[in-house]
Design a protein that fits this description.
379 residues; mainly alpha; Hypothetical protein af1432; 18 helices; dGTPase-like
Length: 379
């Protein structure tokens, strides 16, 4: 049985609304409409062919941006249900948070940011907001998906002060204001940020071991993994390989979920917010316990050193960076190579970044090969 919505949860009936007026839907709440718009968007479909850690063509079992987003949504809704938060808003933010991610994962973001240094830079989180505010073209009278303030606020997870001021100048008191005033987003957005971290760590452990780039023996040196691997073996001494890995990750995920629920409940009891606005004003309330925060950080450090910087991953990253850097220069020097929908005489460099950021891994590889005659990444 689903518990009732808590008083400090976001209420779709009290949303701050959309940038362009639309009459209410007869059968769906405002946040349900947002979620449905994300699911039917072009950018969401493309996530299935965008890299998480391993390039999309390297194996059918490895995570993609789409499967990652679904895992974040599942974790977020599970935790949010126990806390009485607004599940539809959680799902919307989770499914949309990576819409602006480039092909080839963080390698793509780093390349585009470098290419765009003289043109305002590039950040995938800002790009996700740009996708839902401008780049999706599905409605006759406005650009973007016209999402509610609360969904857009949650999508904008990170923002420098410089970028926040740019958004604030266009939208006073809007989704970037909190980065200038030191405020917090909704509890649902805070939860999605933490669920993103939990999902990342768990599935990168899984993919790392499946790929053969890290081993369970290495992971046993990480306290968070060691604890639950030992628990699994005590309960099932015969377990090996896939089943041992799966049971260890399941236990690790479950405990992190319970930890967030307990730590957040304690924070909410102390702050006692009476509504969603008071929850925003109370500072970050969705959290790990101090012990779990430390353990999660240690796991992230291990993955960074042993998986994300593994020579095999780095070699693919180097080739991916070359693909995108050369594509950017080709489009920048010859605007006719861009599709008509991306032609922007006023900001040609941004149009190049928009086009490249929207590519899937395999389309970027094919487009680079078509334009250069060179195949840098074997498929």
């Amino acid at each position: 049985m689903t518990p009732p919505r808590a008083p400090f949860a976001s209420d779709p009936a009290r949303s701050r609304g959309r940038r362009h007026f639309e009459a209410p839907a007869p059968t769906r709440s405002e946040f349900q409409r947002d979620r449905d718009r994300i699911v039917h968007s072009t950018a969401f479909r493309r996530l299935v062919y965008k890299t998480q850690v391993f390039l999309n063509h390297e194996g059918d079992l490895f995570r993609t941006r789409l499967t990652h987003s679904l895992e974040v949504a599942q974790l977020g809704r599970s935790i949010g249900r126990s806390l009485g938060l607004e599940e539809d808003l959680i799902e919307t933010i989770a499914l949309a948070h990576d819409l602006g991610h480039t092909p080839f994962g963080h390698a793509g973001q780093d390349v585009l940011d470098d290419c765009m240094k003289a043109h305002g830079g590039f950040e995938h989180n800002l790009q996700s907001l740009r996708v839902v505010d401008k780049l999706e073209q599905r409605y006759p009278t406005f650009d973007g998906l016209n999402l509610t303030f609360e969904s857009r606020e949650g999508i904008l997870k990170h923002c420098t002060r410089r970028d926040a001021q740019r958004i604030e100048d266009r939208e006073p008191g809007g989704v970037a204001a909190r980065f200038l005033t030191g405020g917090q987003p909704s509890l649902e957005a805070q939860l999605c940020n933490l669920a993103d971290e939990v999902a990342y760590n768990a599935h990168d452990v899984d993919d790392g071991v499946r790929s053969g780039l890290v081993t369970l023996e290495q992971l046993e040196q990480v306290p968070l993994v060691h604890r639950y691997l030992r628990e699994s073996l005590r309960a099932y001494p015969q377990l090996t390989d896939k089943r041992l890995l799966a049971d260890t990750i399941r236990r690790m995920l479950s405990q992190q979920v319970y930890d967030i629920i307990d730590a957040t409940r304690a924070a909410l009891d102390t702050a006692a917010p009476r509504d969603a606005d008071e929850a925003r004003a109370a500072g970050p309330l969705v959290r790990f316990s101090a012990e779990m925060r430390h353990a999660s950080t240690e796991l992230k450090r291990f993955l960074f050193a042993n998986l994300y910087r593994h020579p095999v991953v780095q070699a693919q990253r180097d080739r991916a960076e070359q693909v995108l850097r050369e594509l950017f220069q080709l489009y920048l020097t010859d605007p006719s190579r861009l599709p008509p929908d991306f032609a922007d005489g006023e900001d040609h460099a941004r149009a190049c970044a928009d086009y490249i950021a929207g590519m899937t891994d395999r389309f970027a590889m094919k487009e680079h090969e078509r334009l250069t005659g060179t195949k840098l990444i074997p498929s």
